[in-house]
Amino acid sequence: MNQTDFINILDFGAVPDGRTLCTDAFSAAVAACEKKGGGTIFVPAGNFLTGAIRLESNMTLLLEAGARLLFSDHPDGYPVVNSKWEGVSRKVHMPCVYAENAENVAVAGRGVLDGQGEAWWKLARSKTLDYPRPKLISFHRCRNVQVRDLMLVNSPGWTINPIECDGVTVTGVTIRNPADSPNTDGIDPDSCQNVHISNCHIDVGDDCIAVKSGTEALPQRIETRNVTITNCTMVHGHGGVVLGSEMSGGIRNVVVSNCVFEKTDRGIRIKSRRGRGGAVEDIRVQNLVMDGVLCPFICNLYYYCGPGGKEQSVRDKKPHPVTEATPVFRRIHFSNITARNVRAAAGFFYGLAEMPVEDVTLDNISVAMQEGAQPGMPDMLADFDPVSQMGFFCCNVKDFVFRNVTVSHPVGPAFSAENGENIQFSGCRVREQKEPAPLKKLVNVTD
């Protein structure tokens, strides 16, 4: 196909000067494309200022190398639509690039989508927005969607957020948002199935990749399943790959492989709390390298951030009745992972008193603590003090296997467990302890 087969945005009055608002030109191009039954909307080299762009079925928005979409920072350019925000159904500003109830939709090319998010970040911090700010790209209830090869920068909110979609591919994408930009996650599939994320570089102000499935506030629970994440680099985010805490619909069948995390606050982070319900299960994580993280491995069922997180029932360490609102973490397996310059803890697994984190293996793992590291929180939960150079800590766990796991430079035992059942160790060792300490400390642990 040559460019004469494309619908060229210039033919609809778009001006590539970065100052002339081109929203109407993009709307006209979409209408022309829809009239043909689909096609490719072509954006040539140049700077194009626009508001929200809404795509329909069988459309590709294609940016040539040198093309840059500059999204207006004026709220009037983003009509209000019904969608989700942080796991709750509500009205939001339309995403910069959006599709709803569509199929075969793609955003691709070697160009740049610039969300010009600074004005939105200021509004978010001042809490003066009537509706949540736009995401950079979001598809809602769509099938067969793709984001390929683009540079995505300065997103007003989450950068790529497919919601209730089937068949999502994100590949070859670079995402860069300032480290201090609020809630500018990289890629957040929510209640989706058959998701493939590969060959991406993500450097953002919140989680690099966060897999979600809604909160307990939703009337309908829709799980996320069949997710692969591979060959990606993650930098500076709050978490490298995060599951939850919005996971009331459940998250299962997730594989993370062949990735590098550099200076993310946490590595693999799985989090929820009482009241959320749902299960995170059948998770495989392998062939990772991490450097400069607070804690490489986290399963935390006492996560307290967000609405309702400070209630006494969330922080209570005594057993509660098991109900549909009890979240579950099980069948989670880590292998062939190296982590260096780890600051807070080698790993942190904290199940509920009534629902342990269950069936976890750590195989061929090497974790080196950063000597003299400042204390920090392995994860967010009440009644736990900041720590530095702590080894693996487990509380309320069942059927754990540590096989060929090495911890270097820990302060205290390399492995500590409280209230556990059937915790096995094989070929584990500690290196370069400044002060003698036992390899493991087990309290109230049974076979």
Give an account of the 3D structure.
By secondary structure, this protein is mainly β. The chain has a single domain, classed as 3 Solenoid (Pectate Lyase C-like), CATH 2.160.20.10. 6% of the residues lie in helices and 49% in strands. The chain contains 3 helices and 35 strands. The chain has helices spanning 23-35, 118-126, 312-315; strands spanning 7-8, 17-21, 39-43, 46-50, 53-54, 59-63, 67-71, 80-85, 88-93, 97-100, 103-109, 112-114, 137-140, 143-148, 151-153, 160-163, 166-171, 174-176, 193-198, 201-203, 209-211, 224-230, 233-235, 239-244, 251-262, 266-271, 279-291, 295-300, 328-342, 345-350, 357-369, 390-408, 415-426, 429-431, 440-446. The strands form 3 sheets. It has a 29-stranded parallel β-sheet that branches. A hairpin with a 2-residue loop joins β8 (80-85) and β9. The longest helix has 13 residues, at 23-35. It is elongated and about 75 Å long. The termini are far apart. The mean pLDDT is 96.
